[in-house]
């Protein structure tokens, strides 16, 4: 499945060759696909390891960032996070850096794995509170820690307008785009956040939240790790049921303006995901559609 025009293809044979070249002691371990996101393709290696291979050169920079910061953040967090164990270099058949992490057992958050959604929302809020409370350790919003979701909504207005237009031209979203664009526009008129810059995971959607026995056990995929304003961090709670969303908001004490800006981020990222991935990654576009339907249900 190719998602980007500049994507580098990879398959199990390529991964085997990289392992033979760089970690021959792992080359004979069982290898199986372990999912694919918009930025990385993943393979489970043996029982204890996960291979992550960026889809594009632009996504490859996140690997060094994870290797540098995750060992510093992990001891300060109450849930498991990825542990990098190998920094792969370009090799035969694959021209980009790649990485190997420890495998973390768990299942994606969803109706089959979570029964107490209010408790789950509180768990997620606890993780976010811990992450946002960690000192920046000299990090600043610069270089690979400067990502758009930690900035102001207004900076995104041109591409959000473009993606609304793309969705309208598609004509088959099944969404009330006028109401969604109204929510986006109203949030643009709000005062900007005055919160201090904090650590941001950047993509706390359910596929990055691993569950054990119904509770949040681990948070994975820190490729979007950045420093910035916290508003967009809250946007993925519209991927969760209303009771989880309310428990999350209550636990963090988010005020009305922060909530409205977070919801606007949910709209922006959802519309963008539909516009970009509707043909190449329909399942992901479906996740974005579900998020926007949750936004609409909340304001109905």
TrEMBL record:
GO terms for molecular function: transferase activity. Pfam families: APH (PF01636). InterPro entries: AGP_Transferase, Aminoglycoside_PTrfase, Kinase-like_dom_sf. The keyword Chaperone does not apply. Residues 32-265 form the Aminoglycoside phosphotransferase domain. The keyword Cytoplasm does not apply. Keywords: Transferase. This is Aminoglycoside phosphotransferase family protein.
